Amino acid sequence: MSAAVASWGTAVVILALVVLSCVLRASGEHRADRSLAALRELVAGTATVLRRDTDGEPPRPREVPVTELVPGGLVPVDVRLLRARGLTVHQAALTGESAPVAKRAVQGAAGSGADPGQ
After folding, report:
1. 3-class state of residue 106 by DSSP
2. What are the tens digits of pLDDT across the range 79-116?
3. Which residue in 79, 94, 98, 105 has the most C-beta neighbors within 10 A?
4. Which three-class secondary structure state does DSSP give residue 43?
5. Contact predicate 69/44, CB 8 Å
6. What is the rounded distance in angstroms from the CA atom of residue 104 to the CA atom of residue 28?
7. Residue 60: φ, ψ to 5°
C-alpha cells in the first residue's frame, strides 16, 4: 500500500521486515526439525514383551516394534512393568482421573510375585 502512495522508503522497510520474518521462521522450523529428529533417536522404538510361540510353552522375551503392539488402539490387559521411563496411562474409565497418571516399574524380579504397586 505504501508503494501505491509513492512512499517507497516505507514499502522497502516493510518488505525487508517481511523477508526477515520469513527467514527467521524458516530457520526456527529447521532447528525444531533437527531437535525432533535427535529426540526421536533417544526414544526406544521397540518394546520387550513376553510371548508364547505355541500354547503350553513358557513365554520368552522378544523385542517387537512398538507399532506392532496395537497402534492407536486401546488394549485391556494386566501389565507388570519391568522398566519404564516417562510412561503415563489414561485410566479415566477405571478411576475417574481426568489426567493421565504416571506409572513406574515394579521393584524386584519379573517373576517374584511382588505387588505391582502403581
Report:
1. coil
2. 777 777 788 888 887 788 888 888 888 776 444 444 44
3. 105
4. coil
5. no
6. 35
7. -130, 150
